[in-house]
Amino acid sequence: MIPLSVPLLKGNELKYVAECISSGWISSAGSFVEDFEKKIAKFVGSKYAVACMNGTTGLHISLLLAGVQESDYVIVPNLTFIASLNSIKYIGARPILIDINPDTWQMDLKLLENFFMNECYTKKSDNELALFDNLNHKRIKAIMPVHVLGNMCDMIKLQELCSKYHLDIIEDSTEALGSYFSGKHSGTFGKFGVFSFNGNKIISTGGGGMIVTNDEELAKRAKHITTQAKSNPDEYFHDEIGYNYRLVNVLAAIGVAQMEQLEGILVAKHKIDTFYREALKDVGDIEFQEVSKEVKPNNWLFTFKTKDKAALLEFLNEKLIQSRPFWVPMNQLPMFTKERYISEMDYSNKVYENCISIPCSSGITEEELEFVVHNIKKFFKS
Ligand SMILES: *Cc1c(COP(=O)(O)O)cnc(C)c1O
Ligand 1, atom 2: nearest CA belongs to which residue? Predict the structure, then answer.
C-alpha cells in the first residue's frame, strides 16, 4: 500500500530515544524537552515555546490563558479538524463558525469583517474594550484561525481586524509548521500559536504539541499549568487547578531528531506538490487549492477538488493508494448544528463534498508518485 502520509524516521530518532532509555530519563525530567522547545522557538521565530501532550491540549491551554471564559464566544472557521472546536468546548465557551474562501479553503475574512460590522458592538468590560454579539450580548473573546493544510489566510488583514475589534488571536497552526505569511512564520501572529506532532503531521513525535508565544509571563503560565501547577520544587504545593499535559522526554527526543530533518522534509514536500500540480493540471475536472503570493506553504497534505470524489476515493483505495476525504464541516456535526454559522454560500460543504487527499509522505518515491498519477489519469480516462 502507498500510505497517505507517514513520518520519516531516518535521522537520530533511535539514537536519542536510546539515550533516554539508557540514562533512565524517559519521563517528565530530562534535557530533550527543553532542547525541543528551543529548536521550535528558534525555527518559528518566537521568544518562547512550551511543549505539551498534543495539539489539542495546546489549544485548550492557550484559550484558557488568553482568558476565554465559560460564557464567551470564540470565532473559528467552519472547515477544520474537530480538535479546534473541542478545545473551545473544554472551557465551556461556544464557537461562532465562519465559512471559508472557496479557493484557499481558509476562513473568509470578508465574511468575518461584515460580521464584525453588522452583527457586533464594542463596549467596556472589566475596564477593557471588548467585542459583543448583537444577538445575545455575549462577549466574543478570541479568534482561532486554522491554517488548513498548511495554507494561510491574509494574516496581516486578520491582525488589523482583531486589533480594531479587540480580539485575541490563537492560531491553530497544527498543520502549518514550516508555513509563512509575508516571511513571518505561522503561529507568531497572535497571542499564542499551537503546533502538533501527531503521526500524520509534517514532523511527528507519535503524539505531541507545542505552544509558542512572545509573552514571557504567558509562557511561564503555560509551563506551570501544563505540569500540574506545582509551585514549590520540594513540596507538593499546587497553587491552582493544573493539568497533566506535559510532553515526556522520550517523545521530545524524537522531536529533536525530527527538527534536524525539517528543512529536508519541507524540500521534499514542495517537490511532491510541484510534481502533482504539474502532472494533474489538465486531468478530469481537478482543481487545486489556491495559495496567495504572500504565503509560503509547507505543502503538508496534497488535496484537490473533483466532482467525482466518492468514486475516485473508492478506485484509488482499491488500488492500495491510500486516499482520504476531507473533514465533515463543523456545522454538520450533531454537537454543533445549533451554533451560529456565518455563511452566504456554504462553501465549506462544497469543498468537503469535492476534496480528496492523496499520498504525499516526505519519503514517497518517484515510482510511487508516478503510480498514483497513472491511476488518477486512468480513472478520468485522459
Ligand atoms: C492535528 C490537528 C489538531 C490536533 O492536534 P493533535 O496533536 O492531534 O491533538 C488540531 N487542529 C487541526 C486543524 C489539526 O489538523
Answer: 174
Q: What's this model's pTM, rounded to 2 decimal places? A: 0.97
Q: Which of 75, 36, 41 is nearest to 254 (CA)?
A: 36
Question: What is the average per-residue pLDDT within 75-98?
Answer: 98
38 within 8 A of 45, measured Cβ to Cβ: no
3-state secondary structure of 375: helix
Rounded to the nearest 5 degrees, what angle is found at the Cα of 202, between the Cα atoms of 199 and 205? 40
**Residue 197, SS3 per DSSP:** coil
The amino acid at 223: K
Euclidean distance between CA atoms 21 and 28, whole angstroms? 13
Residues framing ligand 1 (Cβ under 6 A): 54-56, 80-81, 83-84, 146, 172, 174-175, 196, 198, 209
**Residue 382 pLDDT > 70:** no
Give ∠ CA 350-354-359 in degrees, rounded to 5.
140
- How many alpha carbons fall within 13 Å on the CB side of residue 223? 14
Distances (CA, A) of 279 to 283, 349, 370, 376: 8, 27, 9, 10
Provide, rounded to the nearest whole percent, the portion of the chain with pLDDT above 70. Answer: 100
